[in-house]
Amino acid sequence: MWLGVDYYPEQWDPALLEPDLDTIAELGCNIIRIAEFSWHLMEKTEGQYDFSFFDRVILAAKKRGLKILLGTPTAAIPAWLAAKHPDILAVGEDGRRRAFGSRRVYCFNSPEMYKYSEKIIRAMAEHYKEEKAVIAWQIDNELGHEGSDLCFCRNCRKAFQLYLAQKFNGEIDALNEAYGTAFWSQEYNRFGEVPIPEASTVAHNPALRLDWERFRSKSVSDFADFQIRLIKEVIPDAVVTHDIPGGGLEKHVHYADVARNLDVASYNNYPVWGGQKDPLPPHEIAFGLDYIRGLKGRNFWITEAIMGAQGHDVTGYLPRPNQAKMWSYQGMAHGCEALLYFRYRGASKGAEQFCYGVLDADNVKGRKFREVQSFFADIRPYEKALTAPIASDVAILYDYDSLASLRIQRQSLLLDPPGEMKKLYKVFFDANVPVDVLPSEADFSGYKVVLAPQMMVAKPDFQARAEAFVKGGGTLALTWRTAVKDENNNLPFGEPVPAGYQELTGVTVMETESLQELEAFPLTGRNGETGTGGIFRDMLAVRDAEILYRYGDTFYTEYAAVTRKRWGSGAAYYLGCGLDADTTEKLLRQILDETGTETVASDKNVEVVTRGGAEQKIRIFINHNAHTASACGVSLPPFGCKIETL
Fold first, then answer.
1. Is residue 142 flagged as an active site residue?
2. Which of 204, 221, 402, 413 would staple 197 via disulfide (CB 3.0–4.6 Å)?
C-alpha cells in the first residue's frame, strides 16, 4: 500500500532536502510524488536535458526507503517554448489567446505541443528506465481542468474539420443531412467551411455542437494516450496513471476514455476548496470517489488528499481536527488503495501559497502532521481488505453524449444532471448501500438495480442491453428526458418519446414542460401518498404499466408521473419529473426492498462500509458529523472513524 506526500523540492532551498525527507519518512510515508511541474528545470534551453536535480532527490529518497511517483511535466510549459511557438497557447471562445504565466495554457491540438512533449518525455523515460525506485509514472496533471478542455484556435478548427471529414467518410452531403443544415441556410460545400462553435449571435447547430463536444473529449484522451504510448515504448512494464480532477461529469472530457489505457486511475480529492463556507456534503464526496472507481471498474489511487485549508486567491474552510483524516478513511472505504497528501509543505511563493499542506510555510510539525502520521499507522494493517475489489448491487449510469446534449440545450434553468444523479445516489448512501457510478458503455448486466437518469441521447446498443437486463431479472429506473434525441442530437422524426423504450416502459410522453421551480406541482400516490415535483416533467400516457404517482394539478391529472412495468422477470421504472427528496427516498427504498438489497441502519451522515474478502474482511465506520453519532452499536466521536475486523 503506497502512502505518501506530494513533494516539490525544486521550490525550496536545496539544504532542506535531507531534513525534509527525514520528516517525510517520520510521517510513515513510503512514496513521494515529484517533477510534475518542472519542465524548465529539466530543459532550461531547448534540447539541453538535465535531470541531475531529481537524480539527487531520488538518491536521497532511496536511502530512506521511499519510492517515487514520477510526473511528466507537460501541464506547465516553459517560457522559452511559449515564446518560440505562441500558437501552442490555447484560445478562448472570445478569440483571445491565453497568456503564458499559469498552467494548462497549451492547446491539445498543437503539433508543436506534441513535438516538444515527446522530446521531454522520451528523454525522461530513457534516463529513468532502469531506476527501480520509480514505481509509477503520472502523465501531465488534471487533464481538462480549469477550462483547458476547450480551445478555439486555428489548430483546433483544422483538426475538428478533419475529425468530421473522417466521421462522414469525406461526404459533405452526409454531414449536411445529419445536421439539417438547410435550417438557417447553413449548407456546406466542403468540410473546410464548417465552423467551430465560437461566440455568435444565437446558438450554433445542436448537431455540430455535440460533435464538437465529442471532438473536445477526443482531443484530451488522444493526448493522454500519446503520453502513455511514449512511456510504454521505452519502459514496457511501467505503471502509468493520471490524476483526474473533481467535477468530471461537468467537463468537456469523457474521463472513462482518458482512463481506458491507464494502468490505474488516480483522483485529486478536494472535499473543500477556496471560497467554500462548508465542505461538500458527505454523499457528494462519496459519489466522486465511486465515479473514479467506475472509470476502470476497479480500485484507484488518490494522488492529492487534503489536510489543510485550500485556495489560490480566496482560501476556504479549514478542516476541523480529524475531519481531513476522516476524508482519507472515506477514500479508502470507497476503493482507494494508495493515498498521497497534497502537499508535504505549503508553498511560500507562487500561485498556491494558500493551499496549505501537512506542514505550513512555518515548517512546524503540528496537528496536521500528527493526523497524517496516525492515519498512515492506523490504515496500513488493513491493506489486504482495502486492496480487494468492491462488489455492488446497485449502479448509476451516465452517458457522455447525453450530458453534452443537456449542456448544449439545458431546457430548464434548474436542470443539473450531475446534481440529479447525486440526489438519487444519496438515498443509497444514507442506507449504506454500495454503488458503482459507471459510464453507459460499461457492462451493467450483473447488478440488481440500475439507474440511468437523463439518458437524453437514444442509443440502440444501450437500449438492447437495458431490455436484456430487465428481462433477466434486473430493476431499471429511467427518468424524464430519456431518449429524446438521436445520436446526431436531433429529435427523431415520427417516433414518440422515450424513443425505442415504449415496450420496455409501457409509457409514451405526450407533452413536456420545463419548470423553473424545484417543487412546482403536487403529486398523488396510488395509496394516498403526496409529494411534489419540479424542474421538468414528462406527461406520461400509460399503456401497460402500473401508475405509482399521478400529477395532482388541475389540468394534468390524466397523466402519470411515475410508473413501473413488470417485464420478463424484472421491472422498469419511469420517473417522469424531478421528485422532491422525500418522494425520491420512498421510491428508491421501495426498489431496495423489492430487490432484496441489504441496507444498514445508521445515524444521519454515518457511513458503514464493509471491505475485503477471504484473506481479510473489515467494517469501517465513518462519522461525518461534528457531534457524536453511532451505527450498529458503535459510538463515534466528532469526525471519528473506526475499523472492526470481521
1. yes
2. 204
In the chain, what percentage of residues exceed pLDDT 90?
99
pLDDT at 2 over 90: yes
Residue 464 binned pLDDT confidence (cut-offs 50, 70, 90): very high
Mean pLDDT of 180-184: 97
Of 36, 43, 142, 371, which one is the catalytic site residue?
A: 142
Helix axes 417-430, 282-296, angle to 10 degrees: 100
**Single-letter code of the amino acid located at 96:** R
Q: What is the DSSP string of 423-479?
A: HHHHHHHHTT--EEEEETTS--TT-SEEEETT--B--HHHHHHHHHHHHTT-EEEEE
Contact by Cβ (8 Å): 458, 483 = yes
φ and ψ of 350, to 5 deg: 90, -175
Element (H, E) at 618: strand 617-623
Do 351 and 102 touch, CB atoms closer than 8 A?
A: yes
- The residue annotated as part of the active site, out of 304, 371, 420, 607, is 304
61 vs 566: CA distance, rounded Å: 61
Task: Output the pLDDT for position 27.
Answer: 98
Residues 434-463, mean pLDDT to the nearest whole number = 98
CA distance 340 to 328: 10
Query: Taking the CB of residue 492, how many other CB atoms lie within 10 A of it?
Result: 16
Q: Looking at residue 5, what DSSP letter applies?
A: E
pLDDT at 316 over 90: no
Element (H, E) at 179: helix 172-179
Q: Tell me how many degrees the CA angle 214-216-220 measures, rounded to the nearest 5.
A: 115
Is the separation of the CB atoms in 38 and 4 below 8 Å?
no
pLDDT over threshold 90, residue 260: yes
Q: How far is CA 456 from CA 187, 275, 356, 432, 584, in A?
A: 26, 33, 41, 29, 20
Distance CA(509)–CA(559), nearest Å, equals 9
Half-sphere exposure of 285 (CA within 13 A, CB side): 29
According to the model, what pLDDT value does residue 7 have? 98
Task: Please count the CA atoms within 13 angstroms of the CA of 410 that sit on its side-chain side.
Answer: 13
Which three cell numbers mark 227?
A: 503520453
**Torsion angle defined by CA atoms of residues 286, 292, 298 and 303, in that order, rounded to the nearest 10 degrees:** -100
Give the CA angle between residues 72, 265, 64 to the nearest 5°: 60
CA distance 574 to 560: 10
Task: Give which of 602, 551, 548 is closest to 571, Cα–Cα.
Answer: 548
Query: Cell 433477466 sits at which residue?
Result: 472
